[in-house]
Amino acid sequence: VPPMTSVADMTLPMRDDVVTDGNDRAAAIGNAPRAARGFFAVPKVVE
Amino acid sequence: VSGLVDLTIAEARDGLRSKEFSARELAIAYNDAVEQIAPLNAFITTTPERALDMAAASDARLVQGEALPLDGIPLAIKDLFCTKGVLTTAASHILDGFIPPYESTVTEKLWAAGAVMLGKTNLDEFAMGSSTTTSFYGATENPWRRPGDNRPLVPGGSSGGSAAAVAAHAALAATGTDTGGSIRQPASFCGIVGLKPTYGRCSRWGVVAFASSLDHPGPMTRTVRDAAIMLGVMAGHDPRDSTSAPVPVPDYEAALGGNLKGMRVGIPRDHAGVSDLSTENEALWQSGIDWLRDAGAEPVEISLPTTHVALPAYYVIAPAEASSNLARYDGVKFGLRVDGDSLDDMYEKTRAAGFGAEVRRRILIGTYVLSAGYYDAYYLKAQRVRTLIARDFAAAFERCDCILTPTAPTAPFAIGEKSDDPVGMYLNDIFTVSSDLAGLPAISVPAGLSEGLPAGLQIIGRAFDEATVLRVGHVLENAAEFTHVPVFGSSAR
Q: How far apart are CA A23 and CA A20, in angstroms?
């Protein structure tokens, strides 16, 4: 018995490789618990 | 206008168009009702001002004679659907303060059809549960009580807040999501209609993911006709969800009516042996068979031999997908952050504080079954079982046009009654989980009382044949004449 890979009888669609969303920094980081200078801010990882 | 909250969508639609009352009056009546049912804890967030604003826009269109399909209809939204500018929590601590900058496709369609938003309803954390008791925001109470017993009962879950709000007439309808039974089981427990459409029928875009191959958004309503109206708006292809099906959406409301002459209704023999099925729910199932026969349908015995392994397979596949989906909650981009000494320490502290016990349990199970040493033994095997379940249904549908089963094995239980027995809790989904694994449409319709509490019957249909599911559900609804009302109903307020 083959394992199920897709419950629906359809193949995944292809779409054109174009940006459909993005370039909205304020929205992207708007929910970040901490942001700095337009980036997500996390504890220092490089000594 | 009195009795406004007792109308169905179909009736409210007519009343609004004939100007018997305004969308504003309807919104005010429902805002009041939402406030009055506060003790049930059905809502996590209420949006009364937004409701009035949306109702004003509906009234402007109604006056112009340009009414949209759901203009002025007040809805409750399960707090798993992202709503732009409105707190979205998935009932989890880890999504603290998350205000989505976008709207889910399903809610976007509802608002574009003129519907009015009353608020966001409570659920089991990340929709993982059958009781709406694992919410970070506290348990939701069922508006029903056992006769002569005032202990609060669970509304079912995970869409328990939606079910309680609709049953208590504090929302005309609601959205839910169903991964293992999370629309149908709470619908059964609260005495309302719950419809899980075919996988791919309603877009998952903007719905907080639990188990992506199993998550089905769908409507919860007081009548089958209302479910047809809601589904017609919620359904449809969405290019933003790659599993959304490019299949035309029929006029579901037009599919209702008529008798069932020539319809073959499958009765799965294997389900009768399920030990957890209560005597009363089994008797109700027999009534359902008689009602459909009286309407001209022909009951045929079918076999779904993999039923007994559906739950075990589900409790491998759903946690596996959940462990992967929930990896994104790390305290960096949104939601809760608990500070730590290092990045790893911050991740660990955030996830330990943010997830409740049941969610942690499922992440651990999922991580285990996907681990290199156990992947074949558990995950791959469960996916094989899933193939067998789908084949069982395909074979059954050669002999019948739809399948009738109970929705839940028992009546609603008291809050806290099964909280120390996760496997007992999982058994609630024994009749619903197979159609999630196979992606098939299924409806729960209130059919009678069990221990003095509502109990539903379920109709399962072929893929993308929601029309038949609704049509047969409508016949059940008419035959059952379920007119009982909960203690916390509109008349009691």
A: 10
* Interchain pair A3, B337: CB under 8 A: no
Q: How confident is the model over B356-366, as a mean pLDDT?
A: 97
For the stretch A1-22, pLDDT in tens is: 999 998 888 888 888 999 888 8
| CA–CA–CA angle A3, A5, A10 (5° rounding) | 135
Pairwise CB contact (< 8 Å): B439 & A33:
no
pLDDT for residue B323 is more than 90: yes
Average model confidence (pLDDT) across chain B: 95
Q: Which of B168, B378, B118, B330 is nearest to A3 (CA)?
A: B378
Question: Is it true that the peptide bond before A6 is cis, omega within 30 degrees of 0?
Answer: no
Contact B346 A30 (CB under 8 A): no
Q: Please give the ipTM for the structure prediction.
A: 0.94
Whole-number Å distance between alpha carbons of B24 and B64: 15
Model pTM above 0.90: yes
Residue B182 bears catalytic tag = yes
Output the pLDDT for position B416.
85
Residue among B193, B225, B174, B136 at smallest CA distance from B37? B174
Contacts of B241 (CB under 8 A, 6+ apart): B105, B203, B204, B205
**B291 contacts B479 by C-beta, under 8 angstroms:** yes
Structure tokens at B189: 């427990």
- Interacting residues of A28 by C-beta distance below 8 A, sequence separation 6+: none
Confidence grade of residue B492 (pLDDT, cut at 50, 70, 90): low
pLDDT category of residue B234 using cuts at 50, 70 and 90: very high
Judged against a pLDDT cut of 90, whether residue B196 lies above it is answered with: yes
> CA B137, CA B406: separation in Å to the nearest integer?
31
Q: In terms of DSSP H, where are the helices of B355-431?
A: 357-370, 381-396, 422-426
The burial of B437, by beta-carbon neighbours within 10 Å (0-12 exposed, 13-18 middle, 19 or more buried), is given as buried
Q: What is the tens place of the pLDDT at every residue in B371-421?
A: 999 999 999 999 999 999 999 999 999 999 999 999 999 899 999 887 778
Distance from C-alpha of A22 to C-alpha of B298, rounded to nearest angstrom:
55
Mutate to test the interface with B, among A5, A6, A7, A14 (most CBs of B within 10 A): A7
Query: Is there a contact between B222 and B8 (Cβ–Cβ < 8 Å)?
Result: yes
Nearest to B462 by CA among B412, B400, B369: B400
Q: Does any CB of chain A come closer than 8 Å to the CB of residue B384?
A: yes
- Annotated active-site residue B78? The verdict is yes
Backbone angles phi, psi at B59, to 5 degrees: -60, -40
